[in-house]
Amino acid sequence: MMKPIGLSMLILLCLGSVAYADDGVRTVFVPRNVIYPGDMITADVLVERKIRVNSENSAVFGENPKDLVGKVARRTLMRNEYVPRSAVREQDVVLQGRPYKVIYNSESLSIVGEGIPQQAGAVGETISVRNPASGVLFKARVQPDQTLAVDVQ
């Protein structure tokens, strides 16, 4: 006859092995060497590494090299360590202090002008822009073609 404490231990061991069997192994891309903040990530600085994840994590950032290649490191990325999504950002397409085309479109009006970003920005980011003629500051969204789109403010 098995003692109650022995049966409890057996059940815990069985449950632990079932949970372990549900865990999967995924391949992610990690830095081959240390990548410093502001460095662009290229395919040649990445290497594959297998990590263990549980079945509740349907997707892991970095499984596809496109998740990382072309991005810029926000912080130091250590060699052979997993790169979280928050550690990288898109590359800036507009630079601070340079003039860019600014576009405002509505149903009945379209205005095109020039603006000077007060900060660098990546595609989709909303940044502060100064009108060089009037000095007025406004917000604009960075477009893939390096123009700045003004939304209704």
Offer a quick outline of the entry.
It is found in: Periplasm. By secondary structure, this protein is mainly beta.
The CATH topology of the largest domain, please? Answer: Type Iii Antifreeze Protein Isoform Hplc 12
Instruction: Name the structural class.
Output: mainly beta
Mean pLDDT: 84
- What would CATH call the architecture of the largest domain? Alpha-Beta Complex
Which residues sit in consecutive blocks of at least 5 with pLDDT less than 50?
9-22
How would you name the CATH homologous superfamily of the largest domain?
Antifreeze-like/N-acetylneuraminic acid synthase C-terminal domain
How would a crystallographer describe the biggest sheet?
A: 5 strands, mixed, barrel
What level of helicity do the residues show? 10-25%
Rg estimate, integer Å: 25 Å
Question: Could you explain how this protein is built, in words?
Answer:
- Keywords: Bacterial flagellum biogenesis, Cell projection, Cilium, Flagellum, Periplasm, Signal.
- This is Flagella basal body P-ring formation protein FlgA.
- Its main location: periplasm.
- This protein is mainly beta.
- It has two domains: 66 residues, Type Iii Antifreeze Protein Isoform Hplc 12; 59 residues, SH3 type barrels.
- The protein is built from one helix and eleven strands.
- The radius of gyration is 25 Å and the shape is elongated.
- The N and C termini lie far apart (77 Å).
